[in-house]
Amino acid sequence: MTNRQVWCDDIQPIENLCFEPVERSYMNVVVIRIIIVYILLMACALLIPLMWEQWLPMLIVDCVLAVAFVVNVALAHKIYNFKGYALRERDISYRTGIFFTSVTTIPFSKIQQVSLRMNLVSRIFKLYYVDVVNGSQSASNRLTIPGLTLENAERLKSLLINKACLLYTSPSPRDRTRS
Fold it and tell me: Which tens digits make up the pLDDT trace of 25-58?
């Protein structure tokens, strides 16, 4: 076993990776989810006149929600442009977040399960989510990559499973010295 020193200058920062973007139609999924949320919020605002018997608070709340809706739809394009995943030799990384950037990396050796799923909105656009579960006991033990076509999702799933299986089935250095 070796344990060579690694210099910080020699390590490529994870932020410099070339992230593979999600499908373009995923932006439509994001916009539809935003529309559904704001329709529900505006419907709840209709209950204000029933509680206080005044229409002005409802109009103010609806105007604020309408402005927030426009801002969120405008940001949907930036959301799409920023989401992405990157594969390296030993791990997978997923980047998300516009204002507060988050890059989650899972080593292939920690992958326990890889699955594909769809929800009602993504089914309309034939897009899949790839869920990668690692062995962590924390609440964030799942990495979800949204907005992939069936072909790309199945290819990514197969690749992750194969990489994880190779690490589990490869003999350890201790086993190699015994033979």
Answer: 999 999 999 999 999 988 887 777 777 677 777 7
What distances in angstroms separate CA 15 from CA 8, 88, 95, 107, 117, one per listed residue? Answer: 14, 13, 9, 16, 28
Taking the model in full, what pTM does it have? Answer: 0.77
CA 89 to chain CA mean position, Å: 20
Task: Render pLDDT for 136-167 as a digit per residue (tens, 0 to 9).
Answer: 767 677 899 999 999 999 999 999 999 888 76
- What one-letter code names the amino acid at 18? C
Alpha-carbon span 110 to 127, nearest angstrom? 26
Identity of residue 167? L
How many CB atoms are located within 10 Å of the residue 170 CB? 10
Which strand ranges, in their side-by-side order, compose the sheet holding 142-148? 111-117, 128-134, 142-148
- Angstrom distances, CA of residue 45 to CA of 18, 31, 41: 43, 21, 6
DSSP string for residues in 114-172: EEEE--HHHHHTT-EEEEEEES--STT-EEEEEEE-HHHHHHHHHHHHHHHHHHHHSPP
Q: Measured between alpha carbons, how far is residue 98 from residues 18, 103, 129 in Å?
A: 17, 12, 20
Query: What is the amino acid identity at position 45?
Result: A
Quick check: 84 and 100 in contact, CB under 8 A? no
